[in-house]
Amino acid sequence: MFVDFDASKIDTRAARIFVRRAGNGPGLLLLHGFPETHVMWRDVAPSLARSGGPRRQVQNRHLEELGNWLA
Known about the structure:
The chain is mainly β. The protein has one domain (6-66). The protein is built from one helix and four strands. It has a four-stranded mixed sheet. α1 (45-49) links the parallel β3 (27-30) and β4. 14% of the residues are buried.
């Protein structure tokens, strides 16, 4: 589903945030809303990370407060 994306977790004082990253260049942050998860970006995120236009790093975050069952 996110073949060329690295997965990691970012710890903050308030939450742990699951993130998938791919690409190079300025960041493009993709957030989901309730009741979705980061998986809602599965079709568009890979295309954005390897687009022929300006290079960008796509960061697809899963917000734990909304459920962490996929991370």
